[in-house]
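Hi team,

Filling in the usual template for the complex we talked about on Friday. All components are listed, including any nucleic acid strands or ligand strings, so the model treats them as one assembly.

SUBMITTER: L.P.
PURPOSE: interface mapping
COMPONENTS: two
RESIDUES: 839
SEQUENCES:
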Amino acid sequence: MSTGLVKILDGNTFVVSDASGDIDASRTDPTGLFSYDTRYLSKWVLTIDGQRLNSLSTDDLNYFEARFFLVRGTGTVYVDAKLSVIRQRAVGDGFHEELTLLNHDDQAVDLTVRFDAASDFADLFEVKDALEKKGTYSTSVERGELELGYERDTFARATRISSSVPAQVDGEGMTFKLRIEPHGEWTTDLDVVTAFVPASGMSRSRTRYARDGGSGRSNMESNLERWLETAPRIECSWEPLKPTYRRSLVDLAALRFSPPIAGGQSLPAAGLPWFMTMFGRDSILTSLQALPFKPELAATTIHALGTWQGTRVDDFRDEDPGRILHEARYGELPAFEERPHSPYFGSADATPLYVVLLDEYERWTGDTKLVREFEHEARAALNWIDQYADLMGNGYIWYQRRNEETGLENQCWKDSWDSISYRDGRIPSFPRATCEIQGYAYDAKVRGARLARLVWKDAALADRLEREAAELKRRFNRDFWVESDEYFALALDTEGKQVDALSSNIGHLLWSGIVDTSKAKAVVRHLMGPRLFSGWGVRTLAAGEGRYNPIGYHVGTVWPFDCSFIAWGLRRYGFKEEAARIAAGILDAAEFFDGRLPEAFGGYERSVTRYPVEYPTACSPQAWSTGAPLLLLRTMLGLEPIGDNLVVDPTLPAGLGYLELLDIPGRWGRIDAFGRERVEAEPPTGLRRQLGSTPAPRSSRQRARRRT
Amino acid sequence: MNERTATSDTATAFFEQLAERGHEPLLGKAHGTVCVELMDGTSTETWLVTIDRGDLTVFQGTANADCTLRASRELFGQVVTGEVNAVAAVLRGAIGIEGDSELLVLFQRLFPGRSGAAATESDTGARGASR
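RESULT (copied from the run log):
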C-alpha cells in the first residue's frame, strides 16, 4: 500500500485519503470511501478560497477515526498560520466529518469553503483491474443535500451528502460562504451516507440508507474499550511485547466483519483495504490464532461459513456440496456474474480447516451446542474431502479450477502463479496436490472422529474416520517423503511424481500431525537450517531452490502467520526450543513495524540486513499477520486444553525473562498462565539487542540466577 | 412467449416438488416461514414455505413470514433451474429480500448451480458433469 495514506474503517466500510483528508482518486487509485466492495466517493476535496490545504499533522485517533490539522499555504516553507483548519472524520456506514476553522487573526475574515464531491461507483475488482463501467451516473440536489447515483439495469447504488450548516449545493459539491470574527471559530458537520437502492417495484421501501445522519462513534469507542478489557492481559519483562500485543488486539478489532447473517457477531476479515470480507482460509486461520484470546471470533466463523457452505455443483463458482467458501463479494461484478464471488468456493484447504477449527473451538470452549448445530455442515465438509476433492482418485485432495476464466488457479494459501515448483524451478500442471492440504485433511479426519464420538454419538463414523486418517498418514509418509534429503515434497503432480522443492509447507505438516514421529527430527532440521530459517522466521521457499527469491511473494519471503503455525507444529512434536526461536524472530521483527506485522517480509539473512525488509506491495493490517503474535504467545506458554483444564508448559526465548497471560477465557472460566525463560538461542548477530539472541537488560539478581 | 410459459411452469413445479419432498436435510437447522412473491405484470402470486428442522410445508395464501423473497415470475423460474444465481440477483437488485437473512441463505441452498446439478443429498451427491 502507498505510504502517506490515512485509512480508517469499520467492518467493510473504509475511507482511504491523503494526509490532508482529501480523496482525489483516479480509476485505479485505491483511495476513496468504500463500502460492500463499491467505491461511494472517489472525490472529496476541501478548498478554501479555491486553494487546497496543507497538512500539519494527522492523528489516527482510533481505527475508525482520524483528525487532520491543516493550514493554508502553497506548499512552500512559509505557511499562513492565521487560520487553522481541523477535519475530524469517523467512519461507520459512510462517514461523518466535522470541519472546524479557527481564525487566529485580529481581523475578521471572509472565506469561501468548498467540498468537491464525486463518485465513480467502481467495484473493487474494477479498481484492481482498471475495467470500464457499464452503467449511468446521476446527480440530484434536493433539500440542501447532494445525491450521487449509479444505475445499471436493476443495480443501483447512491451516496448522499449533507451538512449541518446550510450550504449552496450543486451537482459537484457544496460551498459555504462565511465570515469568522477575530479569534472566532466556525464549524459544520458533514455526513456522507451510502445506500443500496432496492430494485424498482421490488420493494415497498424507498432508498435504504445505511443510517440517517448522526454518528455511531461513541458506540464504537465503548465497543473497542470492551473488546480490549475482555481480552487476556499481558505482563512481561520484555517491553516491546506489550505494544505488539495491544496492536494485535486493536487491529483484530478493526478487522472484524459482521456478515448480515451473523446477528451482529463478527468474524475476522482478511485485510485492509482490499480484503475486508468473509474469507474461508483467512477467517479460519485467524480464528484459530485468536482462540485463547477471542474465542467468539471462531464461533462466528463456524456459523457464517457453515451457513454459506456449498450445496450444489456450480462450475462458475467452483462450488461443490460440502465445500467451504473462499471469498464473498458484494459489488457490481459479482452482482452481474462477471466475477464468481457470490460467493466463490475455489479453495482446497478451507473445507478441512473448517473441521479443524470446529474441534479446536470445542476443546477450548466446551461449546458442544455449536458442534451439534453444525454437525450436518461438518459431516458434509468431511465428505467433500473424499467425494469431491480427490480429483485423481488416489486418496489425496487435489485442486484444479473449473472456472477457467475468472476462477483461482492456485487454491492453497500460496496462491501466486509460481509458488508451487520443482527444485529446478519447473512448474507442475494441474491438478495439484500440495502437501499441507493433505495434512489438514488428516487432521480434519482425526478431529472429526473425536467430535463424532464425543458430540454426535456416531461411533461408526468415528471408527471410519480414524481408519481413513491412519491410512492417509501411511500413504502420505510414503508418497511425499523425499528420501534422499529427508523432507516432504511440496506437492504431487498428476503423474504422482514429487514436486520436490523444499518449502515452509513442511512446518504445517507438523501442525497437522501427519508426520511420522521418526521423520519429525529431519523435518525440524530443515526448518531451522540455514536454507529455510532466515533468523527472523522460516522462508516460504528454501534458499537454493530454482525459484528462490528473498523478495518473491511465496518463493522466499517470510510470512509471520506461516511461522506462527510452524511454531505450533514444532510444539506439537515436542520441539519447544525451536518453537521459541521462531517466536523470538517474529516478535522481534514486529518491533520494527511498531507491533503491526506486515503480510510478509524479505527472506534475507537476519545477520545481513539486521532489520526485516517489508515486502513491497503487502497489505497491512492483515488478519493472519495480526493473529501471529497471539498464536506465538500460545506456543511460547505451551497452552493446551486437556479435558477441562488448561495445561501450561512454557518455553520462552532468551531475553523474554518472564511472561504472564492473565484471564485466559475457556471452558475453565478464566485462568492465568505464567512462564520464565530458560532457553538461550543463537549468539548476538545484530547491533541492537535482539529477542532470542541477546539477553535483554536485566537486574543483576536475574543475571546471577541465569549463571547458576 | 412459449419460453416464458415454460419458465412460469418451472416456478410452480419447483414448489410442487418441494411439497412432495416433505423433508430436506440441507435445511435441518432452519426454522421459520419463507414467503416467495412472484410478480407477473400487475399480479402477484404468493407461495409460503414453512420449515421446521428440515420438514417442509408448502402452501399458497397469506401468513406471517420470517422473510420474503420478491422476484418476477420469469426470473424466479431461471433461479430454480440454475440459469441465474439467486445471491447475485439479490446483489443487483433483481430479487428483493426482507426479513431473516439467515433463513434466506439457508433457503437458497435449494436452488441448483449453473451446471445444472440440483441440490439433493449433500452427503452423497454425484460429481460435477464437467469432471
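MY TAKE: The interface with chain A takes residues 25-26, 28-29, 39, 70-71, 82, 85, 87-88, 91-96, 98, 101-102, 105-106, 109, 111-115, 117-119, 122-131 of chain B (CB under 8 Å). Residues 116-131 of chain B have pLDDT under 50 and may be disordered.

Thanks, L.
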